[in-house]
Amino acid sequence: MKRRFLLFGLLALILAGCAPKSQPLIPDSEAALRWQLFQQRTGSPLAYDVLSGSLRFGPVNDTRRVTYTLWSDCSEEENTRVIRLSVNAGTGTNVANMLFEQGRMLLFLPREGKAYEGLETEENMRRIMGLALPMSMNDLNDFLAGGVLPALDASAPERYHTEGSGGIVYAVTLNGRRCELELDEQALPVRWTVPGSWTLTARYDKAGRPDRLDGVLFSTQGEQRMVLLVKNRRPGTDMPASSLELKIPPGVAIYPLDRQPPDRF
To answer: What is the pLDDT of residues 242-256, one digit of tens each?
Structure first.
């Protein structure tokens, strides 16, 4: 019995020795300077392009692929933003049109001839897609435009550890949740993990804007997967102001999203 305890103790020491050593963030250290660069390069004014690409989501062994177009407009005077999202099936058929504004969302499903309206919440997004997004649509819009810092709303880190790949992993709070955020050698966030929830990785184009967001969600329904690709960007001026409106056809009833789950697109 004593020998077994000694073996367990030795194994624990070995594992502890292999684990990354977390240490406090010291001013002017490499970790502190990299964090400063992250703040500088992601806090500049954003240009919201019209984005198009693909989205794969759902249970790990049963994901669905759709294509999307995402565009928006922000009123500096009223400090509000309108976001429009159009979703097509793999055949090119339009299956969903969505509008997000001031914490509310409007969804129109043309194939079903139904519309839904309600709060933009994780639960409502789960009802629509079968998967809650890792951030709000406003934050996702910022993130894809290159505004990683405002999208993540990360607190100043207190501790960090280094990775063999050259990345530095910081212990931070993102949107009120404790998590890990890894910055690569260019001070771009390439991975963040929310314990018991999301693990996400990001890839960037030559301009430092995200072009792939890959995530795994651990939930009571099992492991969920999401892969979002940005394949094309074009100026927001390509879309007329009227395109930000989502007009529901006459005769189509608008159901409360909070009480009646929609037919998922």
So the answer is: 899 999 999 999 999
How many CB atoms neighbour CB 159 within 10 A? 13
pLDDT for res 194: 87
CB 59 within 8 Å of CB 223: yes
Determine the Cα–Cα distance for residues 68 and 259; give it in Å rounded to an integer: 27
* The token pair that represents 229 in the structure block: 């690709």
- 229 touches 211 (CB < 8 A): yes
Distance CA 150, CA 39 (A): 9
Instruction: Give the model confidence (pLDDT) of 179-206 as tens digits.
Output: 999 999 999 999 999 888 889 999 999 8
Dist CA 227 CA 238 (whole Å): 26
Q: Which residues contact 129 (CB under 8 A, 6 or more apart)?
A: 57, 264, 265
Predicted local distance difference test score (pLDDT) of residue 100: 95
Tokens read off for 225: 């997967």
Give the residue carrying structure tokens 């660069």: 37
If one counts every other C-beta atom within 10 angstroms of the C-beta of residue 44, the result is: 10
pTM of the model: 0.84
Alpha carbons 127 and 115: distance in angstroms, whole number: 14
Look at residues 120, 100, 122, 193 and name the one whose alpha carbon lies nearest to residue 152. Answer: 193
Residue given tokens 């990775």 in the structure block: 163
